[in-house]
Amino acid sequence: MTVKGVVLSQKPFGEQDKFIDILTESGILEIAVKGSAKVTSKSGSASQLFAYSEFDIADRRAKNKASVLSSVTPIHIFYGLRNDLNAVALASYFAQVILYSALPKSGTPEILRLMLNTLHYLSEPGHDELVLKAIFELRIASLLGFQPDVVMCRKCGNYLPEQLYFSPEEGCFFCDSCRQQGILMPAGTLQAIRYIILQEFGKIFSFRIAEHCRQPLFDFAEQFLQYHVDKKFPALEYYKQIKRTDFS
């Protein structure tokens, strides 16, 4: 069979071979890549981490063997990621989230599209990596079935309070008159969350957010996804570590 997909992980076996996990429109496939470590390997960059390629696969699972890569053609390699350690760490975090999650059968094409678009913007200069991180976290949570309630204050129905508390655990917000527990944020942060979750996909990467609204967005997106997926990801911890090093 022939599939298009992006490489989410790779692990060596033997001296020359490796297994790769690729995200496709129909789910995640594990493929054995023979001779990948050879200098003359034809799979080369097309089967490396985060490459988006077309894979020709010899399906041998009926014989209790892994599917084996026959040939591969690169579509997009995202070379710009290699120039930024922060971007590589974030891309690895996104991949770990997808690999850990139980993907919905009907939502995988959108998850593939989200991953590809996020990799594209991460690999290009001039894009805010923390905003991209929040976009990925909130959108993937929604695609996995954990969309937060962004309509109104859960208690009084206030649509856009000047200041509010958003609960990652309950997935809803309360105006500051009704409750003072959760992540404190201004109305602009709530509007950004609504935009990321509800806007059509082609527009979610093109918005601006005021400086005072940024940190509550970043805090909520990360905590909301982590609470509902219930998993700590090594790549995220590594990203935070190198970010601290950048500022020291």
**End-to-end separation:** 50 Å
User: Could you name the CATH topology of the largest domain?
Assistant: de novo design (two linked rop proteins)
**Backbone structural class:** alpha+beta
Please report the first level of CATH classification, the CATH class of the largest domain.
Answer: Mainly Alpha
- Give the fraction of residues assigned to helices: 25-40%
Q: Which spans have pLDDT < 50 for at least 5 consecutive residues?
A: none
Number of strands: 8
Instruction: Please tell me the total number of domains.
Output: 2
Form type: elongated
CATH architecture of the largest domain: Up-down Bundle
Largest sheet: 5 strands, mixed, barrel
Identify the CATH homologous superfamily of the largest domain: Recombination protein O, C-terminal domain
SSE topology string:
EEEEEHHHEEEHHH
Radius of gyration based on Cα positions: 20 Å
Topology:
Blueprint: E1 2-13, E2 17-24, E3 27-33, E4 52-58, E5 67-76, H1 85-100, H2 108-123, H3 129-143, E6 163-167, E7 172-175, E8 183-186, H4 187-198, H5 211-229, H6 234-247
Parallel strand pairs: 3-5
Antiparallel strand pairs: 1-2, 1-4, 2-3, 4-5, 6-7, 6-8
Helix pairs in contact: 1-2, 1-3, 1-6, 2-3, 3-5, 4-5
Describe what is shown at a glance:
With 248 residues, this protein is an alpha+beta fold.
Annotation keywords:
single chain, 248 residues, alpha+beta, OB fold (Dihydrolipoamide Acetyltransferase, E2P), de novo design (two linked rop proteins), 5-stranded mixed barrel
Account of the protein in words:
The protein has 248 residues and is of the alpha+beta class. The protein folds into two domains: 2-77, OB fold (Dihydrolipoamide Acetyltransferase, E2P), CATH 2.40.50; 83-247, Recombination protein O, C-terminal domain (de novo design (two linked rop proteins)). Helices cover 37% and strands 23% of the residues. It has helices at residues 85-100, 108-123, 129-143, 187-198, 211-229, 234-247; strands at residues 2-13, 17-24, 27-33, 52-58, 67-76, 163-167, 172-175, 183-186. The strands form two sheets. It has a five-stranded mixed β-barrel. Strands 7-6-8 form a three-stranded antiparallel β-sheet. The chain is elongated.
